Amino acid sequence: MNLAKVLGTVVSTQKEESLKGLKFLLLGQVDTNGALTGGIVVAADAVGAGVGEMVMYATGSSARQTRFTDKRPCDAVVMGIVDSWEIEGEELYKKGERE
Amino acid sequence: MNLAKVLGTVVSTQKEESLKGLKFLLLGQVDTNGALTGGIVVAADAVGAGVGEMVMYATGSSARQTRFTDKRPCDAVVMGIVDSWEIEGEELYKKGERE
Amino acid sequence: MNLAKVLGTVVSTQKEESLKGLKFLLLGQVDTNGALTGGIVVAADAVGAGVGEMVMYATGSSARQTRFTDKRPCDAVVMGIVDSWEIEGEELYKKGERE
Amino acid sequence: MNLAKVLGTVVSTQKEESLKGLKFLLLGQVDTNGALTGGIVVAADAVGAGVGEMVMYATGSSARQTRFTDKRPCDAVVMGIVDSWEIEGEELYKKGERE
Amino acid sequence: MNLAKVLGTVVSTQKEESLKGLKFLLLGQVDTNGALTGGIVVAADAVGAGVGEMVMYATGSSARQTRFTDKRPCDAVVMGIVDSWEIEGEELYKKGERE
Questions:
Q1: In chain B, at which end, N or C, are there fewer CB atoms within 10 A of the end residue's CB?
Q2: Which of C1, C31, C77 best probes binding to B when mutated, by most B CB atoms within 10 angstroms?
Q3: Across residues C21-25, what is the average pLDDT?
Q4: Residues of B with CB below 8 A from C66's CB?
Q5: Is residue D29 within 8 angstroms of chain E, CB to CB?
């Protein structure tokens, strides 16, 4: 999975039938400090993530295997809202402090 | 999925049997402002997207699971025409205004 | 899929049993003008493409689903010989004119 | 697979149901000298790797096929703790000496 | 598939059960001249490749479909030892001459 920040939402009315009902989030990939690296991805939301939150998302066939995306042709899904991460014992990100 | 702009079309007469009948679009990847980043991809069209429209496309095995591409050896498919996207409440792209 | 130019061929005598009989082409990825970008890939040939031709190739599990590669452990296959592509109505590549 | 160093851990309470119970490690990709290249990935741990250890991790559908991740929607898993690697007979990394 | 040079070997004692018995090679990706590009990958060996040889390797789900890796969670496998490759009729690599 990759770390990303939820930047916002993408609206698409005319879309593949089987994707209807899913919410699509615009994610910005981040580095270990939580800074945006420039890479973006559009991911379905499996956990109710909000704008500004740090998340981890999966790509590829795993993206079709959550409760929300089961058998739907998704290739990227937000799998979890990140509370914190630490590197060698130092907490580099903690939700609520660095968003 | 990724965001892209439909740049044009690709014509291929001599192709794998199972791809016949599909329309292939030439897509240019875009950043959050809708500006082209230089990356391109050839994707089958599952939604009737037109040149100049912003779309979201999926890659990998999900690309074989739309109505149009079911079980065909596609690895990239346009899944939706994008109406708009917003970042932290600001609309950065809206169809008809920034194409 | 991606656009590429057929640069040449790769010969491998000692190879995985199930790949025997396939022809392997060395492809160079191209940009929208048909210029090489530096990226290369070795792909099985499903359409009889020749050196110098522009092609589109697929990667991943779709590469195992053509007549020639069915169930063989391929991860890249030339799916079609490209006749032409156009961007916003302008033909940027036409076979026989820009090779 | 890729070589990486275990940088730390990622905590996510609100996550896809089927991922519960897995430990997520923050990995930093390394070059042949074991130096960090800047790329990061969040991987489930199938082998009990600790912070500072060099590991090899797999991505894609293989990540759902270990004892710990069987059928769970993972796209990256630590598959082994690396003891050493050598290039043309020279040992460039040995566990315990270069961490 | 991609072209790479076998740089050396990776030793991992503590690893996912189902990977035991496989030999892991450290590969360096090469360009059309056979020069290293800096990219590396750890691949299982399906053909008995030796250090210094040029090989082609596959990634993704195809990597689980050779005699040696059948159903094992591999994501990269050396599929063939390369004898030679040529570009537009010129032989840019021939085994035994440029290693």
A1: C
A2: C1
A3: 96
A4: 16, 18, 73
A5: no
Concatenating the DSSP letter of every residue in C54-78 gives EEEEEEGGGGG-STTTTTS--SEEE
**Which of A5-9, C9-13, E28-32, E68-72 has the lowest average pLDDT?**
E68-72
Residue C77 has pLDDT above 80, yes or no: yes
Across the interface, whether the CB atoms of E75 and D58 are under 8 A apart is answered: yes
Whole-model pTM over 0.95 = no
Q: Is D60 close to E60, i.e. CB distance below 8 A?
A: yes
Q: What is the DSSP string of A14-41?
A: SB-GGGTT--EEEEEEE-TTS-EEEEEE
The residues of chain B scoring below 50 in pLDDT are 99
| Residue E76 structural domain | 2-94
The answer to whether residue C99 sits within a structural domain is no
Which residue type is seen at E19?
Answer: L
Q: Is B17 helix (H, G, I), strand (E, B) or coil?
A: helix
What pLDDT is recorded for position A99?
A: 45
- For residue B58, the domain's CATH number is 2.40.50.220
Q: How far is CA E65 from the centre of its chain?
A: 15
Residues 56-95 of E with CB under 8 A from C: 56, 58-63, 65-67, 77, 79-89, 92
Q: What is the DSSP string of E22-72?
A: --EEEEEEE-TTS-EEEEEEEEEESS---TT-EEEEEEGGGGG-STTTTTS
Label residue E59 left, alpha or beta by phi (over 0 means left) and psi (-120 to 50 means alpha).
beta
Q: What is the pLDDT of residue A38?
A: 94
**Domain assignment present for E29:** yes
E65-85 in b/e form (b: 16+ CB < 10 A) is: bbebbeebbbbbbbbbbbbbb
- A62/D75 Cβ within 8 A: yes
Query: What is the tally of structural domains in chain B?
Result: 1
| Cross-chain Cβ contact A13/B66 below 8 Å | no
Kindly state whether residue D99 falls inside one of the protein's structural domains.
no
**Nearest beta carbon to residue C15 from set E31, E63, E80:** E80
Q: Is B99 inside a domain boundary?
A: no
* Chain B residues closer than 8 Å to C77 by CB: 16, 73
